[in-house]
Specification:
Blueprint lengths: L32 H10 L3 H24 L6 H5 L10 E5 L11 H10 L2 E8 L5 E3 L6 H4 L10 H5 L19 H9 L5 E6 L5 H13 L6 E5 L2 H10 L5 E4 L8 H7 L3 E5 H6 L1 H9 L3 E5 L4 H10 L3 E4 L2 H11 L4
Parallel strand pairs: 1-2, 1-9, 2-4, 4-5, 5-6, 6-7, 7-8, 8-9
Antiparallel strand pairs: 2-3
């Protein structure tokens, strides 16, 4: 397979531009030496003022150059490559790693996906003490038998839980990874990228914890943040507008472009049913440079259905099978 590197507030407006400043000069009558000295004491010489303003101006221009030199947002093409046309093969994205081979959201599952695929997807929640942990469910019962939630326990307590035995005895004693551990492994694989879903609603400070880790490992542009939560997506936009982000949504709006523009999205993650019901929405998004991914598709019928429409990525529990299917249906990928 080829690697390819609650409601919107309408009152939110961009910052007002700085008002222009005009300089007024006037002629002065002849004055005595004493008057001149008094004027100089009260009004510094124009040359001194120009020097001081010049120094401030240099600092201001430098800051402006720095700001303008940093892109305000990534684009879908920057992250996913050229957007797909009908029938063109979609990117394969391993759902919670490679769940067909190892327990979800564990390092074995995630590392398998990172080694084989262009993209891996995982989920992040905060522990009681504010550490980003990789886990999907709202409680721990299905995976560990504990009815607590991730947010009920500290990171050290979560790190002692066995999150692999439920899948098979060979994975007993697998521990819940931190986001930091996952990003460290991702940084060691320069061809791999990640979609990281922030579960539920995140504040600015909570989002900053994740963004700081991404920056720490030099993964700007290789990690895409995604969420079902508008609150979380607005927080990402405020904290780090250069971080690429995707909105997860079960049903695309009839015209999804305005929302994408307002949130600065590079893409939507949605269902196959939504895309097939509104193919015109997919066309409109591609015309606007916005990608469309579909989750979580595990059968050939679904792969063929969305591939015919030209979706850009397929999130799947069966990445190896999808890879093999694409090798047959789209040779050369």
């Amino acid at each position: 397979m080829t690697r390819v590197p609650g409601a919107i507030d309408p009152t939110i407006a961009p910052p007002e531009s700085q008002l222009p400043v005009s300089t007024i000069t006037a002629s002065r009558p002849l004055e005595s030496a004493a008057s001149a000295r008094r004027r100089l004491d009260l009004h510094p010489p124009r040359r001194l003022v120009r020097v001081l303003l010049g120094a401030v101006g240099v600092a201001g221009v430098s800051a402006l150059i720095f700001i303008l030199g940093t892109p305000t947002s990534a684009t879908a093409i920057d992250v996913f490559g050229a957007l797909r046309g009908p029938g063109e093969p979609a990117l394969i994205i391993g759902h919670r790693g490679d769940r067909a081979e190892a327990p979800e959201n564990t390092m074995p599952s995630l590392e398998l996906a990172m080694d084989r695929l262009a993209y891996v997807e995982t989920d992040v929640q905060l522990s009681r003490d504010g550490v980003p942990m990789l886990f999907h469910d709202t409680d721990l019962e299905r995976i560990t038998g504990d009815d607590a939630s991730v947010g009920d326990l500290d990171a050290d307590e979560l790190g002692r839980l066995d999150v692999g035995a439920w899948y098979g005895p060979e994975f007993a004693d697998e521990r819940m990874p931190t986001l930091e551990r996952f990003l460290s492994a991702l940084a060691d694989r320069p061809d791999a990228r990640a979609l990281v879903e922030l579960k539920a609603d995140w504040t600015n400070d909570e989002v900053r914890t994740v963004v700081d880790l991404v920056e720490q490992f030099g993964l700007r542009g290789r990690v895409v943040l995604e969420s079902f939560s508008l609150e979380t997506l607005f927080a990402v936009q405020r904290v780090s507008p250069t971080t690429p982000r995707i909105m997860l949504i079960r049903e695309l709006p009839a015209d999804p472009v305005p929302m994408a523009e307002r949130l600065g999205l590079i893409g939507y993650g949605t269902t196959a049913r939504s895309v097939t019901a509104q193919p015109q929405a997919l066309v409109a998004l591609h015309e606007a440079g916005v990608a469309v991914l579909c989750y979580t598709l595990n059968t050939e019928d679904r792969w063929e259905e969305v591939g015919a429409l030209g979706v850009d990525g397929i999130i799947t529990d069966e990445p190896s099978e999808l890879d093999e299917w694409l090798a047959v249906t789209a040779p050369g990928t």
